[in-house]
Each structure stands twice: as structure tokens, then as C-alpha cells.
Automatic annotation (TrEMBL):
Residues 216-288 form the Cation efflux protein cytoplasmic domain. This is Cation diffusion facilitator family transporter. The keyword RNA-binding does not apply. It is found in: Membrane. The lineage of its organism: Bacteria, Bacillati, Actinomycetota, Actinomycetes, Micrococcales. Keywords: Ion transport, Membrane, Transmembrane, Transmembrane helix, Transport. It comes from Luteipulveratus flavus.
Length: 299
């Protein structure tokens, strides 16, 4: 006997779509302003932040599209898991954009070595301050959904990096104005690029863990197997698999061995365990009275 349970909660990314929409509008508007002033002032720190802001605009747009795709009904009949992985792919795109922005800034900074560059500090300070305000608002908007959705978390980390970039622009402007040394502008730009790259790598690890179908964070497969063995009537557990379909949607499959007269009761107890203790609503459990003919799979 086998069975499964389904969760009917709204998709995590879809619940926070309004946060993404508002943040996208704010960031897109500011990007246009920052790029114009970066080109006018000649500040690499400001240009680097504008480049990262451009990545934000694309990343937030992709995140918005992903939430729409993820909740769209399947009309082909072939996407048996739906399109929920769209948000994971959007997070992967965010990683690539963050890394591209970091590399671009690093190349531009190294290209300035030995050049004499004039940097207008007043626009740096004004635009940096505006950018800081915009990013703080976006951070407050996205923070509420970052813990639930990998998609929103990717957007949140993008804005975190932007906030650091805005602070860096202000610091660079103050230092250049105070010392007259434009190397501060280049140094801050490189620091921003490094920070962005590090955050991108950390997010990439989470994305790859989902795509690689690793056990969900915070769930120990050995512990789950042990708890299933403790379920009344269970004599054995094998072929246990745990993975994350998308943010807030963990999935499990397992074979349980139980006496023939207790299969229904064992199935219900095991389902309840997976739902209540591990928040796994979609657990496909097969209960067998005799596992001798069930050869455990190598994976």
C-alpha cells in the first residue's frame, strides 16, 4: 500500500510577489538616475554600483517572471512537478549576474592603473545617499520573504550588495573629497566587487543544493529514517529520499515494512510524522508487508 499527502499552501514566491514588484519599480527607477550620474561624474565606484544595479533590475524582473511561471497551471500534462523550479533557475541567473558585475568592476579598476582620472565627488555623495535610501526601502520589503523563498532571497541578497555599494560610494566620495586621491574611488570599487562575488558564491551553493536534490537544509536523512523506524508497526525503512522541489516545498519518498494487517495505520502514522515534525506535506510512502522482493536501489 502506498500513499501521499499534498500541501495546498500558496507557493512561497507567489505570496511575496508584491514585494518583488515594488522593489523592482524602485530599483529600476534609481538605476537610470545612477547610471546617468556615474557617466557624468567619472566615478568608478558609482559606475560599479550602477552596473550591479543593472544586474538587480534584470534579476528582480526574472524573479517576478519566475513567480508567475511557478504558479501557472501545466497545460502539457508532462510537467508532473509543475513549474516550481522556475524560481530556482531565476536565482541561478541572479548568481551569474552578480558574478558578471563583480568581474566587470574588477577589470575596469585594473584598467585604471596608471591613468589620471578626474572624479566629481558631489554627484557621488548625492546619488550615493539617494541609492542608500532606495536600497534600505527595498531591503525592508524583501526581508519578509527572504526566509521563505529562494527566489526572494536571491533578490534580497542582490539588494544587500547594492546597499553595501551605496555605502561604498558615499565613503569613496568623502575620501576622494578629503584627500584628493582618486585611488580611494578605485579601491572602494574593488571592495564592492569582492563583496558581491562572495555573496554570489554563497547563493550559488544553495541553488546547486536544490538542483542537485540534496536533503533540505535542517533535515538530517539519518534522523528521519530513525524516526520512521520508531513509528508503531514499522519493522524496516529503505529507499528513503529527501529533496527540495522549490522554496517551502520539501518532498520525500520511502518504503516502510509493516505487518500486513497494519499497513493502513502505519501509513497514516508515518504521514503525520513527516508533516508535523519535518513540515513535509508531500511524502510518498509505500508500505510493504514483505520487502524480500523489493531490492533496495543503489541511489
Amino acid at each position: 500500500m502506498s500513499g501521499h499527502s499534498h500541501g495546498h499552501a500558496q507557493h512561497a514566491g507567489g505570496r511575496h510577489r508584491w514585494r518583488l514588484t515594488t522593489a523592482f519599480a524602485l530599483v529600476a527607477a534609481y538605476f537610470v538616475v545612477e547610471l546617468a550620474f556615474a557617466l557624468w561624474s567619472g566615478s568608478l565606484a558609482l559606475l560599479s554600483d550602477a552596473g550591479h544595479m543593472a544586474a538587480d533590475v534584470v534579476a528582480l524582473g526574472a524573479a517576478l517572471a519566475a513567480t508567475r511561471i511557478a504558479t501557472r497551471p501545466d497545460t502539457t500534462g508532462r510537467r508532473t512537478f509543475g513549474s516550481y523550479r522556475a524560481e530556482v533557475f531565476a536565482s541561478g541567473l541572479t548568481v551569474l549576474l552578480m558574478l558578471a558585475a563583480a568581474v566587470y568592476v574588477a577589470v575596469e579598476a585594473l584598467g585604471r592603473v596608471g591613468d589620471v582620472v578626474d572624479v566629481a565627488t558631489a554627484p557621488m555623495l548625492v546619488v550615493g545617499a539617494i541609492g542608500l535610501a532606495v536600497n534600505v526601502i527595498a531591503l525592508l520589503l524583501l526581508r519578509g520573504g527572504a526566509a521563505e523563498s529562494l527566489n526572494v532571497k536571491g533578490a534580497y541578497l542582490e539588494v544587500v550588495a547594492d546597499t553595501v555599494g551605496s555605502v561604498g560610494v558615499i565613503v569613496a566620495g568623502v575620501l576622494v573629497a578629503a584627500t584628493g586621491n582618486v585611488w580611494w574611488d578605485t579601491g572602494v570599487a574593488l571592495a564592492i566587487a569582492t563583496f558581491v562575488a562572495v555573496r554570489a558564491v554563497l547563493l550559488a551553493r544553495e541553488v546547486l543544493a536544490v538542483l542537485g536534490q540534496h536533503a533540505p537544509r535542517g533535515i538530517d536523512p539519518d534522523e528521519v529514517e530513525h524516526r520512521l523506524r520508531e513509528v508503531a508497526g514499522v519493522r524496516g525503512v529503505h529507499d528513503l529520499h529527501l529533496w527540495t522541489l522549490t522554496s517551502g516545498m520539501n518532498v520525500a519518498t520511502a518504503h516502510l515494512v509493516a505487518p500486513s494487517g497494519q499497513t493502513t495505520a502505519v501509513l497514516e502514522r508515518a504521514r503525520r510524522l513527516m508533516r508535523d515534525e519535518y513540515d513535509i506535506e508531500h511524502a510518498t510512502l509505500q508500505v510493504e508487508a514483505d520487502a524480500s522482493s523489493c531490492n533496495e536501489m543503489s541511489w
